[in-house]
């Protein structure tokens, strides 16, 4: 496996399968690499803790950096190369300029849905779109692999690429000839249900137990919504009541685990809009329950 630390070194991986990460890798990331290898593409992993997607009060400085262990893990998972760019390679006009440019980006509509990530982290998706577009242009992948763990991010990137394909070349946030196919990959969990996350290593033993509140809350929402999903579409008021019931159950479960809830909602899985209208003639729209909660200084997200 190659460690690529220059832009020139990327030329050999054009048309690869790309797995962008911020490092502190775990089985969730390794599954993305294995999936890419199974698809018959050369897996190229990037490790870059992107400063433009962190707000000043967030954990950019203390975000875990474990490059040696990450490289070993990538190699075992079958990566062809790990790209470890510097800030200067990603933002050649300088970080201050990049931070200004991020503010000007036109984000896809799914980035700014009420209550979700954007409400809690208003500058986050600008930085994510900025870095992902730049990495796509540098790496020129055929496909890019993203985890459902960050479900809104996955929808944002998918919409960004779809929009980009529809625009004139000069207006594209991502170079049109290399808008990769976005491949969603299921969330990898510990045996007890906790979604793997680089931030889990911040949790003390007692906090890790409380963190199970997220997956338990999602399970309760699933139990309430599942019978609904197998039925013909409910009339709108009935569906609204079932969703309100599921949201209340999630809140109760999260509070039972003494978690500080930022959001716990059920949405249309595609648009991430609140579900208001259902056309009785259509099959039931897929739903997605999404949670963000804080445990002390650690912020956790999950969805199902
Ligand atoms: P990150 O390094 O946290 O920015 O994540 C890099 C990629 O790994 C993103 O596409 C994440 O959605 C994905 N990822 C993180 N955790 C998991 C997980 N538990 N299961 C599946 N994918 C994950």
Question: TL;DR?
Answer:
The protein is of the alpha/beta class and 304 residues long. The protein contains nine helices and nine strands. Strand 8 (287-295) and strand 9 (298-303) form a beta hairpin.
Furnish the topology, listing elements before pairings:
Blueprint: E1 2-4, E2 17-21, H1 27-38, E3 43-47, H2 67-77, E4 81-83, H3 87-90, H4 95-104, H5 117-120, H6 124-139, E5 143-147, H7 151-166, E6 181-185, H8 205-230, H9 236-256, E7 260-268, E8 287-295, E9 298-303
Parallel strand pairs: 1-4, 2-3, 2-5, 3-4, 5-6
Antiparallel strand pairs: 7-8, 8-9
Helix pairs in contact: 4-6, 6-7, 8-9
The protein binds adenosine monophosphate.
Residues 21-22, 28-29, 32, 146-147, 149-150, 185, 187-188, 195-198 line the site of adenosine monophosphate.
**Straight-line distance between termini:** 34 Å
Order of helices and strands: EEHEHEHHHHEHEHHEEE
Largest sheet composition: 6 strands, parallel
- CATH C-level label of the largest domain: Alpha Beta
CATH-scheme architecture of the largest domain: 3-Layer(aba) Sandwich
Beta-strand proportion: 15-25%
Overall tally of structural domains: 2
Q: In the CATH hierarchy, what is the superfamily of the largest domain?
A: HUPs
Extended strand count: 9
Enter the CATH topology name of the largest domain.
Rossmann fold
Strand adjacency order, main sheet? 1-4-3-2-5-6
Cofactors and ligands present?
adenosine monophosphate
Shape verdict? globular
Helix and strand composition category: alpha/beta
Q: Catalogue the unreliable spans.
A: none
Number of helices: 9
The whole-angstrom Rg is: 20 Å
